[in-house]
Amino acid sequence: MFGSRIAGMGHYVPDRVVKNDDLSQWMDTTDEWIVQRTGIRERRWVEGDVGAAELAEHASRQALEEAGLSPSDIDMILFATLSPDICFPGSGCLLQARLGIPGVPALDVRNQCSGFLYSLSVADQFIRTGAMKRILVVGAEVHSTGLDLSTRGRDVTVIFGDGAGAAILEQTEGESRILDTELHADGRYAEMLMAEAPASRLNPRLSVEMLEAGRQFPKMDGKAVFKQAVERLPEVIHSVLRRNGVALADVALLVPHQANLRINEMVARQLNFPFEKVYNNIQRYGNTTAASIPIALHEAAGEGRLKKGDYVLLAGFGSGFTWGASLVRW
Ligand code: COA
């Protein structure tokens, strides 16, 4: 039975470091508040006109190199982002042009913090059926150009950072593979974490009044997101383990989405899973949404936290609401 294994990974963050104290030049906030509520100490922001596809190109080229492949070996691109370079076409097409592989299908996935998990699952299905042999899955975000830097937006702005993470999925008949991905969504909560404008359901899509009201900036009901995340994540983790007959005690590493260190601590506590086996790097990058899981997974692998044959769990929750978990045999 065909499956897909991760043949190589890459990640990239911009050079510009924005510390918590740097944010207080624009808004009323403090390092202490941000660290205490979120665990974040700094994040990376792009400088100038840099879009998600550019960050993704860096991460993708690194992933290709790690896999010993060149762009022409790729059969398909899946690009997860909530911050596409332009309204349309998708950033997958822009990345495909940057990689110089015309003709290769490119699909954008718009599932926010669960975008990488959704993409991984889609790629895995294409490979299992034998339709594709190698798929580049990339999550990349440029949040910094779309954040409200005034005090009005401080609850959201302090948590987001820019970055990209990529994985090459390759067909395999071996044991190291993506075992399963369980995905969920609940659109009843769509407006609890959203960036509303420009919007096709508004006519005009964007106006001076809307800009003045800040409707182009992300808005969040932080408490509702927190509450749902700490319920849905343990639930989906238990479920994906159960349906694959794997015990939580046999999981070597949990790599959760990096939304808030407190969420990850609470999830570990609810699972009764040792926090040392939960990988976190939100302290350095903030929440990079679709990029956060692949950046964290690549860093964890680079630090020698994963051995061949280990069970690794990836799990994420975010806007939509969407959530999911992947069980991977490393
Ligand atoms: N700096 C200083 N004060 C801030 C602030 C900031 N950056 N952001 C909000 N505050 C203030 C609020 O104005 C409020 O003040 P008030 O009590 O005078 O009204 C106070 O801090 C508490 O705000 P609240 O929003 O209730 O805080 P919270 O405890 O819910 O923490 C989050 C806010 C955003 C850290 C938290 O809700 C959270 O992490 N939620 C999950 C968010 C998430 O994961 N999003 C991404 C999902 S993918």
Characteristic terms for this protein:
330 residues, alpha/beta, Peroxisomal Thiolase, Chain A, domain 1, 2 domains, five-stranded mixed beta sheet, four-stranded mixed beta sheet, 11 helices, 33% helix, binds coenzyme A
Structural summary, described in words:
- The protein is an alpha/beta fold.
- The protein has helices at 20-23, 31-38, 52-67, 91-99, 115-128, 154-157, 208-213, 222-244, 261-271, 282-285, 292-302, and strands spanning 3-12, 17-19, 42-44, 76-80, 106-109, 134-141, 163-172, 177-185, 193-194, 219-220, 251-256, 311-318, 322-329.
- The chain contains eleven helices and 13 strands.
- A hairpin with a 3-residue loop joins strand 12 and strand 13.
- Helix 3 (52-67) crosses helix 4 and helix 8 crosses helix 9 (261-271).
- It folds into two domains: 3-173, Peroxisomal Thiolase, Chain A, domain 1; 179-329, Thiolase/Chalcone synthase (Peroxisomal Thiolase, Chain A, domain 1, 3-Layer(aba) Sandwich), CATH 3.40.47.
- It binds coenzyme A.
- The site of coenzyme A has 20 residues, from helix 2, helix 6 and helix 8.
Helix content: 25-40%
Find the count of extended strands (DSSP E, 2+ residues): 13
Class per helix and strand makeup: alpha/beta
Number of folding domains?
2
Bound ligands, named by name, code or SMILES? coenzyme A
Strands of the widest sheet, in order across it, are 1-7-6-4-5
CATH architecture identity of the largest domain: 3-Layer(aba) Sandwich
CATH class of the largest domain: Alpha Beta
Provide the low-confidence segments as ranges.
none
The CATH H-level superfamily of the largest domain is: Thiolase/Chalcone synthase
Strand residue content: 15-25%
Number of helices: 11
Radius of gyration: 19 Å
- Largest beta sheet, briefly? 5 strands, mixed
Task: Quote the average pLDDT.
Answer: 98
Globally, the shape reads globular
CATH topology label of the largest domain: Peroxisomal Thiolase, Chain A, domain 1
* Distance separating the two termini: 17 Å
User: SSE order, as H and E?
Assistant: EEHHEHEHEHEHEEEHEHEHHHEE
